[in-house]
Write a structure and sequence with these properties.
Structural class: alpha/beta
Bound molecules: zinc ion
Strand content: 15-25%
Largest sheet: 11 strands, mixed
Number of strands: 31
Strand order of the largest sheet: 7-6-14-8-9-13-10-12-11-15-16
Distance between the termini: 55 Å
Radius of gyration: 27 Å
Number of helices: 24
């Protein structure tokens, strides 16, 4: 029998995820001696013992690592055997990168789920059960280092039994900072009163059709029975939310399959530790109230991701609306007093608990259509996981955009995106933004010297950046930021062909951009092509009333008089007054900037095809247009378009759409052909640019790239054209992802 000893240096996400206890258990099981300790780069293991067993250790180290660990590399080297007889965990002084130590919040694990369902277990029915593999993390951290006194679990003194588990390296709860049990941990409160079986009572009133505010992991939700049309209507009316679809929480996978088309990718995400809301094609006859997602053919569902939610859904209706508990345009509520004040009038009951939420964090949202995965909102479960970037300069803060704001902290080796902050339209959200920035700076011990911001002078994020002292400001063009954000996430240095299609972004020439095809690298870009400009009549007003946008396209395609006449015929909701005002604005250019936005083009065509005359949330007309395509084949003949001189001229597209409408062609068919047309002219332009010498990498980004039908066709057609398309994997293509690109552009300027 030959003894051997070696050292293994493990890099990756191996701290704060139960890695050392796992190593301890594995080594002990195999009868090996040695040690394991954290270092600044990861974990260092020394093992000594029989060669065969040491080899088995190394093999199982990678195959059996804890669920949250991500091993990037293992480097081994042989050492002289030392005659060791024990294996131990060394508590090290070395401090790792702070992000390595503050993991995202993690959905309830299978072991904890079993315990709360087991009448013989001491955590039976306990809604705050967690372990090293699951539970609250980022949302309870007040400061560093990440250990219990620095979390909102500090006021709860561990009982003897929990303390034993916490100290025992062989236990699943070894160093699980939020460890708790019914004897020592947080408790539930119903309408301010201690509520023993609060879950049972809340389940009952939900069955009766009541609305309940429920304090969860990253904030409050508003919940009601998703099958009750009355309850859903009541919630919608009281919340003042327009028609924006509600997310639901379903009891289990069986229920998920009842409401949606669950692909393998969707199932993997639903059951992942991140546990996002997954938007999938909805099923007809699911029993869900119509008002959950009006005029949509998708449904956004998630599984219970905390023990509280699991216990509740076991007894409540099998599908609950679970929408962020906030007033319209305000951040998610996370403080008990404010929640009572603001959600009290909306909810019939408030179920809360006494574990404070240090950092509010909305649910993350991912769209899945077949095997296509499109991140829509990145928050709980993902933040503060960082994106690796090759950078060594001074720290950068990128403040993001105006809508769906996130910010990004960039420093040596990594970019850390914030959770979804919201639309920076109100003082409340701006205040939340400022607090979140400060929290990140403290948590990650980073003082930014460079601040990247959008070119738009009116964005509150831009104004906030300009009010800072002692930093260097770097303005970054909106669509360049979008393109570089994808490049950073997928690891491209560029140059690339960047297709940035979104609502509105401030162009370098002061006009409104949004249908842009750029040649870009991480430092600079050239605007190679853009959608032909039309007037954006009355700015914001045209976004709220998409019919006005449609009129602007009609005037461009047919001329003034004929354009107005056709608009009146096709869109009965457009009033005389509106048509007159828009015509005057377009003619004289008053308060009507030139605009090349692809998002507005979708809005305009949607309005022509009978989508909502009044958009109650961003992107609503375009989403309805995608939904109209229904089951119409994706492969169909595109409309005629013209491309030349850096401009995509779609006037002929508008004329043919109108012709088809006047021939009373099926609107689904027109919508489908329109999608195919946008894919076709995009690929046409990319092919031309490639033939002229542009590289073959094509980056797809901007809010329009949340359109699954369009993205799928672009991926297929670009590949057929011999090009290499790239999309985001975890970062949203909408404005929620642009802070990453801003930061990386600013950092590239430092090289
Ligand atoms: Zn667990
Ligand atoms: Zn306890």
């Amino acid at each position: 029998m030959s003894a051997t000893r070696y050292e293994a240096r493990v890099k990756g996400t191996v701290q704060g995820v139960g890695f050392r206890p796992f190593v301890f258990r594995l080594a002990t099981e195999l009868g090996l001696a040695g040690s394991v300790r954290n270092t600044a780069e990861g974990v260092v293991i020394e093992v000594e013992g029989e060669r065969a067993r040491a080899d088995e250790f190394l093999r199982r180290l990678e195959t059996e690592a804890p669920p949250l660990a991500r091993i990037a590399s293992v480097e081994t080297r042989a050492l002289e055997p030392d005659g060791l007889s024990e294996f131990c965990i060394i508590e090290s002084e070395a401090r790792a990168q702070p992000t390595a130590l503050i993991p995202p919040d993690v959905a309830l694990c299978a072991d904890c789920a079993r315990e709360i369902a087991d009448p013989g277990d001491r955590r039976f029915g306990y809604p705050f059960t967690n372990c090293t593999n699951c539970g609250p993390r980022f949302s309870i951290v007040r400061g560093i280092p990440y250990d219990r006194p620095q979390t909102t679990m500090a006021p709860f003194e561990m009982c003897a039994e929990c303390a034993r588990e916490y100290r025992d390296p062989a236990d699943r709860r070894f160093h699980a900072e939020p460890v708790a049990c019914p004897a020592c941990g947080p408790e539930l409160f119903l309408d301010g009163e201690r509520a023993g079986d609060g879950v049972g009572r809340v389940a009952r009133v939900l069955r009766e059709g009541k609305v309940v505010a429920i304090k969860g992991l990253g904030g409050y939700h508003l919940a009601c029975d998703a099958r009750s049309a009355e309850a859903v209507e009541a919630l919608r009316a009281r919340k003042g939310r327009g028609l924006k679809p509600f997310a639901i929480m379903v009891r289990d996978m069986e229920e998920a399959r009842r409401v949606g088309e669950v692909s393998a990718e969707a199932e993997a995400l639903l059951t992942s530790p991140e546990s996002p809301v997954v938007i999938m094609p909805s099923k007809v006859g699911s029993g869900l109230a119509e008002g959950i997602a009006t005029r949509q053919n998708t449904v956004g569902a998630m599984l219970p991701y905390t023990p509280l939610h699991r216990l509740l859904l076991d007894r409540s209706p099998p599908a609950l609306v679970m929408t962020s508990g906030n007033l319209a345009e305000e951040p998610i509520e996370h403080r008990d007093e404010e929640a009572k004040q603001k959600l009290g009038p909306i909810a019939d009951y408030i179920l809360s608990h006494n574990r404070e939420i240090a950092v509010p964090c909305d649910d993350s949202v991912v769209r899945v259509d077949g095997n296509l995965v499109i991140p829509m909102r990145r928050a709980r479960g993902y933040v503060p996981r960082s994106v690796p970037v090759d950078y060594e300069g001074p720290p950068v803060l990128a403040v993001g955009g105006q809508t769906k704001n996130t910010f990004c902290l960039l420093r040596e080796g990594e970019a850390i995106l914030s959770q979804h902050i919201g639309d920076l339209d109100t003082a409340e959200v701006l205040h939340y933004f400022g607090r979140a920035v400060r929290h990140f700076e403290e948590l990650f011990e980073t003082k930014p010297e460079i601040v990247a911001h959008d070119l738009h002078p009116g964005y509150l994020s831009t104004q906030w950046a300009k009010s800072l002292e002692g930093v260097r400001l770097v303005p970054v063009q909106h669509h360049h930021a979008h393109v570089v954000s994808v490049m950073a996430e997928v690891g491209l240095e560029g140059p690339v062909i960047g297709v940035a299609y979104d609502g509105t972004g401030y162009g370098a020439d002061g006009t409104v951009w949004g249908g842009e095809i750029l040649i870009a690298d991480r430092r600079e870009y050239r605007r190679a092509f853009h959608l032909r400009e039309v007037r954006l009549p009355g700015g914001e007003g045209a976004i709220r009333r998409p019919g006005r946008m449609a009129l602007s396209y009609l005037i461009d395609a047919f001329g003034m008089e004929e354009g107005i006449a056709r608009a009146r015929r096709l869109m009965p909701d457009l009033t005389d007054e509106e048509a007159r005002v828009v015509a005057r604005q377009v003619e004289r250019g008053i308060n009507s900037p030139a605009c090349s936005s692809m998002g507005r083009f979708f809005d305009g065509v949607a309005a022509l095809l009978g989508a909502t005359p009044e958009a109650t949330y961003e992107g609503q007309p375009a989403m309805e247009l995608e939904a109209m395509c229904g089951a119409h084949a994706e492969t169909c003949a595109p409309y005629r378009f013209a491309v030349g001189q850096g401009v995509i001229d779609a006037r002929e597209v508008v004329r043919t759409v109108v012709q088809d409408l006047e021939r009373a062609l099926d609107q689904g068919e027109i919508a489908a052909r329109f999608h195919e047309t946008v894919a076709a002219f995009t690929v046409d332009v990319c092919r031309r640019l490639h033939e002229e010498g542009a590289p073959g990498d094509v980056v797809l980004c901007g809010g329009v790239m949340q359109n699954a039908r369009l993205v799928r066709r672009l991926l297929v057609l670009l590949e057929q054209a011999g090009l290499r398309p790239h999309i985001h994997r975890e970062v949203p293509p909408n404005d929620g992802g642009m802070s990453l690109g801003q930061g990386v552009v600013a950092a590239a300027g430092e090289r």
